[in-house]
Specification:
The complex is a heterodimer. By secondary structure, chain A is an alpha+beta fold. Chain A has a two-stranded antiparallel sheet. Chain A is elongated, with a radius of gyration of 26 Å. The termini of chain A are far apart. By secondary structure, chain B is mainly alpha-helical. In chain B, about 55% of the residues lie in helices and about 10% in strands. Chain B has twelve helices and five strands. In chain B, strand 1 and strand 2 form a beta hairpin. Classes of the chains: A alpha+beta, B mainly alpha.
């Protein structure tokens, strides 16, 4: 009689235990799903992505922050953003993008020479080849849109009457022109946002900065879907 | 011989740790050595859940092919990845070693009543897949300790605050119970358990010498009661039972 009772209470105890385990699982499932789903909404940011990044929406839906693009970048321009700053471990372009193998160390003279022999450059774009999930897609070099440069005329040496124009010389895409013979101006449609001009700008803080494209959320979304871009 | 196999395992772990964290192009999530490419299956599943990869089939095939490597290995020999290669397990075992040297006993081992979490890792796995489907991003990758331990180099070792935060959480969970993260929470472990259900190439078993002293259940990092010949899909093939059985009663069944 007594053993029977103890057996019964043992069973209820076990049932209680397994019910408790089930509740732990349910709470973990709901909690984790909610937490990381909310967290990942912070991924969509207006930041400079490596070249070939799709629309911000598609980029963050594919990037597994594996860091292969970081490791292959010859200029060390790509960095994984920390969790606490924007981007949640996804890669951002902090330095500059060489775009062409010949321009891995940008230098106005070298770039001028390079521009004269136009069309012969070998695209670097190793980050695109390295990307395992297609968050960075192969697109023609001229289509790359990382962002576009903006010149601060108050601090720019050329606009203040001193000889400089290093950004004009270095730009591999001829996106910087001289306005009215006075100072450099960026043609926003031509600028790819490779940031080489930022690298060579002699002023501190930099008088030329690259800003993310205003419609960064739609960078390539439509184009590559209909198969033109890829 | 029985003890030496653990040294072999630690050497293999160290080699993998140096390879995955310091040498290879990329991280565990996806890396390349020469022509060899590897993708972690859970990352691939999350990208598939995101959906947009189906628009670019050539990348999809590469992703599936590279993530098939670990899947195949796991289907063949079970969850060996965890105990032989995963950097977080190496990290946790290192912490465990230090705690042992400092004579610190994890809270759960002090004979008090501990919380029995059961198989929460399947819930985390389901949560990871669900979150990837809801948010359409590889959401787990944001907080994954396995990625974090590898990303510390890419984002500049100790400056990477958040990575250190994640590792700190994993580290302090060890103070409660050794290998807490691997044992209860890791969704990759959960996935590998599911994949390894059918594997039967290498399985530790209790031989006739077994006295049923239950030492294996206590020694085993996963708490598998080997003396009862239970379901072995949780087994990480770390062979700790083989090395530490007081009666030498554990045999390894190869096929």
């Amino acid at each position: 009689m007594i053993t029977g009772m103890s057996y019964k209470s043992d069973e209820t105890h076990r049932a209680q235990k397994s019910r408790r385990k089930f509740i732990y699982s349910v709470f973990t499932f709901l909690g984790l799903t909610a937490f990381i789903s909310v967290l990942s909404t912070f991924r969509n940011r207006a930041v400079l992505r490596p070249p070939g990044a799709l629309s911000e929406y598609e980029f963050s839906s594919r990037c597994i922050s594996c860091g292969r693009c970081v490791d292959v970048c010859p200029t060390n321009g790509i960095k994984l953003s920390g969790l606490l700053d924007s981007g949640l471990g996804t890669p951002v372009l902090e330095g500059y993008c060489a775009v062409y193998l010949e321009l891995i160390e940008p230098d106005p003279e070298k770039n001028l020479k390079f521009k004269f022999s136009e069309g012969k450059g070998t695209p670097c774009l190793r980050c695109i080849d390295a990307c395992p999930t297609g968050a960075l897609m192969k697109i023609p070099v001229k289509e790359i849109k990382i962002g576009s440069a903006i010149i601060n005329r108050n601090t720019c040496l050329a606009w203040r009457g001193e000889p400089c124009l290093r950004c004009f010389a270095v730009c591999p895409f001829n996106a910087v022109t001289i306005s009215e013979g006075r100072g450099p101006v960026v043609i926003r449609d031509v600028c790819t946002g490779c940031s080489q001009c930022v690298y060579v700008c002699p002023t501190t803080p930099k008088s030329i900065v690259v800003q993310p494209h205003p419609d960064y959320a739609l960078r390539y979304r439509y184009r590559w879907r209909i198969g033109e871009g890829a | 011989m029985r003890k030496k196999i653990q040294i072999v395992r630690h050497v293999v772990q160290l080699i993998f740790f140096i390879l995955l964290v310091l040498v290879v192009v990329g991280t565990v999530c996806s890396f390349q050595i020469g022509g060899f490419q590897f993708t972690e299956p859970l990352g691939a599943i999350q990208v598939l859940m995101g959906g947009s990869i189906f628009f670019t089939p050539e990348k999809l095939y590469i992703l599936l092919a590279t993530s098939a490597i670990l899947v195949t290995v796991t289907v063949l020999i079970g969850r060996a990845w965890c105990a032989w290669a995963c950097p977080v397990m190496t990290f946790n075992e290192f912490i465990e070693y230090i705690m042992k040297r400092l004579r610190y006993k994890p809270v759960a081992e002090r004979g008090k009543k501990k919380i029995e979490l059961g198989e929460v890792r399947f819930a985390t796995l389901a949560g990871v897949v669900a979150a990837a489907g809801i948010s359409k991003t590889p959401a787990w990758c944001n907080v994954c300790p396995i990625g974090a331990i590898c990303r510390t180099r890419s984002s500049g070792l100790l400056v990477a605050g958040a990575e250190m935060l994640i590792l700190g959480v994993v580290f302090s969970a060890n103070m409660y119970e050794k290998r807490f993260f691997c044992k209860y929470l890791c969704p990759v472990g959960g996935l590998l358990i599911l994949l390894g259900k059918i594997s039967s190439l290498i399985i530790p078993r209790a031989s006739e010498k077994c006295t049923g002293c239950k030492a294996c259940e206590y020694i085993c990092p996963e708490g598998i009661p080997l003396f009862r010949n239970p379901d072995m899909s949780k087994c990480t093939k770390c062979l700790v039972c083989y090395s530490n059985c007081p009666y030498g009663a554990v045999k390894i069944d190869v096929i």
